Amino acid sequence: MAMSSMKRLLDLPLVSSTCYLVSVVYCNMKESHPRVKPFCEVAETGVKTIASVAATGAAPIIVKFQPQIAGANQLMCKYLDKTEEAFPVLQQLGICASNWKVAGSNPVNARGDTTPLGP
């Protein structure tokens, strides 16, 4: 079976560490700002519901277009190979990503420091 281009993209250290950072900041923000937490939970529930409905509705279309999807996946893998070759930094965490440690309840804010964002 061919490798999924999406899995390969998400497995790149730069991409996976960025996703992790966003997740940690979001969770810390949600926990440290009680007024925001209910809105985040409603949004999460909505996204889960929409994704579930979309997946169920899209299943017949995905089956119908499987050959085209497989071709697009192969093409994407080919371009990922070329991109990884041209930009080897994508395979490294790099200095910035390795410093993205979020300790305790100090989320990294948009400025890149751990100064509290507000009450």
UniProtKB/TrEMBL annotation:
It is found in: Lipid droplet. The keyword Zinc does not apply. It holds the Pfam family Perilipin. The keyword Signal applies. It comes from the Eukaryota. One of its GO terms (cellular component) is cytosol. GO terms for biological process: lipid storage; positive regulation of triglyceride storage. InterPro entries: Perilipin. Keywords: Lipid droplet, Signal. Its main location: other. Residues 1-17 form the signal peptide. PANTHER family: LIPID STORAGE DROPLETS SURFACE-BINDING PROTEIN 1, PERILIPIN. Belongs to the perilipin family. This is Perilipin-2-like.
